[in-house]
Specification:
It is built from 4 helices and no strands. The chain is mostly helical. The protein is elongated, with a radius of gyration of 26 Å. The model has no long low-confidence stretch (mean pLDDT about 80).
C-alpha cells in the first residue's frame, strides 16, 4: 500500500527524486577513435570477404550448361542465373558502403581474420 501511495504522490507532484533520473553514457563513438591501421585492416578484410563472396556467388549462379546463352533452355538455370546476378549486384552495392562507427571497423577486423580464409577456401574448393 505504501508503494502505491508513493507512486501516486510522484505522479501528482511531478518531482522525481535524483535516484529516478538516469543518465546514459554517450554510446556513440566516432570512427576517429579507431586506430588508422585497424580501420585500414577492417576495410581491407571486409572488401576481400565481399569480393570473394561475390565471385563465389557468380560462379555458383552460372548455368550448368556450357554457356550463359543456353541458360534459357532450362528454367532452373535461368532462375539460378537471375537470383545469382541479383545477389552479386547487392554485394557490389555493399562493397562501396563503408562502416559508420568504430564498432563496425573492429567487428570487420576480427570477423575478417576468420571469415576471409574460410571464404577463400570455399572459393578454391568450389572452383
Amino acid at each position: 500500500m505504501y508503494c502505491l501511495a508513493r507512486f501516486l504522490y510522484y505522479l501528482t507532484d511531478k518531482t522525481w527524486p535524483m535516484s529516478r533520473i538516469v543518465s546514459l553514457p554517450n554510446t556513440h563513438s566516432r570512427s576517429s577513435e579507431v586506430p588508422a591501421w585497424q580501420q585500414f585492416a577492417g576495410l581491407a578484410l571486409r572488401s576481400v570477404f565481399i569480393i570473394t563472396l561475390g565471385v563465389l556467388m557468380f560462379r555458383m549462379a552460372l548455368p550448368q550448361s556450357e554457356t550463359i546463352a543456353t541458360a534459357y533452355d532450362t528454367p532452373n538455370d535461368l532462375v539460378r542465373l537471375v537470383l545469382g546476378l541479383a545477389a552479386c549486384a547487392w554485394l557490389l552495392v555493399q562493397l562501396f558502403r563503408v562502416p559508420r562507427d568504430a564498432a563496425a571497423y573492429r567487428t570487420w577486423f576480427y570477423l575478417g581474420l576468420v571469415a576471409v580464409p574460410f571464404a577463400l577456401v570455399c572459393l578454391f574448393a568450389a572452383w
